[in-house]
Amino acid sequence: MRRTKAVSALSLVAAGTLLLSACSGGDSGSGSTDQNGSSTDVKSMAVGKAETGDSFKLADVKGWDGTVTVGIDDGYSGYNNNTPDTNSSYNTYILTAVLEDSFVLDGNNKVLLNADMFDSIDVTSKDPQVVTYKIKPNIKWSDNAAFDCHDLYLNWLSQSGQAKGSDGKNPFNAASTTGYDKIKTATCKDNLTFETDYSEPYLDYKGLFSGVSILPAHILEKNTGIADITKLAPTGDPAQLSKAGDFWTNKWKGFDKALMPASGPYMIDAFDANQKAVTLVKNPNWAGGKGGPAKIIVRAMEDTKAMATALQNGEIDVAASTQPDATAAQTMKSLSAQGVTYGSAAQLTYEHLDLQFNRMFKDDALRKAFFESVDRKAITDKLLKEVQADASPLNSIVFFQGEEGYTDLYGSKAGLGADAAAKTLTDAGWAKGADGIFAKNGQRASFKITHNQNARRSQTVEIIISQAKAAGIEVKDETDANFLKGGRVSTGDYDIALFGWSSAPFKSQSRSIYVCPNNGGDQNYQNLCDPKIDEAFTAAVKATDEQSKLQNYQAADKAIADKYATMPLFQTPSMWAFKGIDRVYMQSYNGVLWNAGEWEQKK
């Protein structure tokens, strides 16, 4: 899961059938647009140029000696994107061109074998489940070291949840261990053959060894004195595990060129923390297609309107935002005469409000009343219609609209009005004070909604403040630019957190957000804990057939809703625009650079 920083970024789970079902091909040349103002040819850009069947590789097209500048919503913070303080979509949006995965997602969220790196990935036994990875020969990191089984082994060791260091604790501070914790043993049969033996069935195995999580084992070995990481078992030497865990957790933050080689078509050449800009250049050892520009500069532009203006002024070539903004969308749509193509599509990301159970929201009635006071349709109508014409509130946490399993669980809980909210509080012993705000046992119904620096989020809270006040609830807006990357959200330091979750299309990835913190809830920052939720997720993750899996995820979805724990606002649409490139599609989980190595210059 990725926490979307400007929406926030980590996040949920949905099937590839939800998004556009694209056909292959290039620009259609049509000037017509869909209901959102996207050019009709944008749909065809969701498929890789050399994509065939269930395999993906970068097409070998003509590159060019130029620079493309890309604007995204927030900045880079770490090469290892799998610790709680770095785990962000905005790192993924850059690292997707730098670090290779076992499986690739195209623009339709179709899960494809990475044929540039792997000959095969197969379930070689069903009972017990064994998955075998065959790495292509002669694949190298950008520093000329072999990309091999050691790298996959480190990926498992670091996220297995099984390691114990010198202090008896896990030295690898992984944001989530879901899925990896089902692997009983991992073995390098040889340098190019990696075998994972599962303790129980895990249908979502394709979501593992992906998400820019395969890091260079040879760098860790060299800098820790560990001769061979594959000889270090989770139950092995605690001192060695502590060394490995400390390096993995702490030494791959920020940017250090000597420690951070690339396995993908591009490598990081420079990082300007002040300017929030990352410079990517071609990886000389990349074995796949040779297309794309010689240099890509990725700039963080937190103001989406300014991003659109920068595209208009020629300061950037690609504007790629997960933060839908009506004014910015209007600007980008108006630039077609300048050769700009605009696109918008639903993402596997949802905007939501998380209520903190360790604070005043222990009170069931207060949670329920807050839900009843918030009219989510007013939020989507005001903030999203220009970007997505048919935008409406999301009424599920585990499923997206139009997806099998989706049920409206929140239409009867949220937006019932001020009178309903006031009655809920009154019936529970709350009394309205002289200031018009309910209170109980000396505690006023007053709290903050905290979010990062984001204009749309500020507007969201502004709407909620007015709605809640009518119900006798005081809501305050707290903007913290570092809320999603400074530790506050991951330590639960909030009353209500407003952000977004984004994920690859594997529902098991949402488990770590909602099960009890002491039961694998590594990303459960709101301290929600309910046995019904845990039981349903456990049954879903270990299910051996799709129907059982679906039913148990539905049960988990309902249990979360019944706790009035998380209020889904909407499925977040992306919007992007570009010029000077033949085709760009903003992939829901990986951003626009997922296939930058096959971009061609548009004359």
Automatic annotation (TrEMBL):
<feature type="domain" description="Solute-binding protein family 5">
    <location>
        <begin position="119"/>
        <end position="510"/>
    </location>
</feature>
<protein>
    <submittedName>
        <fullName>ABC transporter family substrate-binding protein</fullName>
    </submittedName>
</protein>
<dbReference type="Pfam" id="PF00496">
    <property type="entry name" value="SBP_bac_5"/>
</dbReference>
<keyword id="KW-0732">Signal</keyword>
<dbReference type="InterPro" id="IPR039424">
    <property type="entry name" value="SBP_5"/>
</dbReference>
<dbReference type="InterPro" id="IPR000914">
    <property type="entry name" value="SBP_5_dom"/>
</dbReference>
<feature type="signal peptide">
    <location>
        <begin position="1"/>
        <end position="22"/>
    </location>
</feature>
